[in-house]
Design a protein that fits this description.
Length: 150
């Protein structure tokens, strides 16, 4: 288990900001020698605290700049209904996040499409054909002043 100390928190903060930072630069920012910093990063990876690194994409540049969050309610609360819905969402490339949540709905989705017509196709052809979906509430993202997702 990796330590949850100030230096490890700083390392995680710096890596969250820039996962491609060199070990030399990271060590300088957190006040460690490069070898000590590398050992800590490796410990964080081995402990499962750091589970991977990824690129942050410009959604507009790849044709997926129309972003929505969708609340989905299911008519049945069975394991079968949940598994069927989750399989359908796994297969839909527009769905970049699918969260099973508590409250008045069962799922919260993050969907990224090219534009409103492509979203309408997803809404009609994917969500609209699921036999378990009984409620769909769409929230269109108009801007993201803070987005720390990797």
């Amino acid at each position: 288990m990796a330590k949850n100390d100030r230096i490890n928190r700083q390392i995680l903060q710096e890596l969250t900001r820039d996962g491609r930072i060199s070990n030399l630069e990271l060590a300088d920012r957190v006040g460690l020698s490069p070898s000590a910093c590398l050992r800590r990063v490796q410990d964080l990876e081995q402990a499962g605290v750091i589970t991977g690194y990824r690129a942050v994409l410009n959604r507009d540049a790849i044709g997926a700049g129309f972003v929505t969050y969708i609340g989905v309610g299911l008519g049945e609360h069975t394991k079968e209904a949940q598994q069927a819905f989750e399989r359908a969402m796994e297969e839909a490339p527009e769905v970049v996040e699918c969260h099973n949540i508590t409250g008045t709905i069962e799922y919260l989705l993050r969907v990224e499409c090219a534009d409103l017509p492509s979203y309408k196709r997803f809404h009609t052809d994917i969500l609209g054909t699921s036999p378990y979906v009984t409620a769909i509430t769409t929230y269109v993202v108009m801007g993201s002043p803070k987005d720390l997702r990797g």
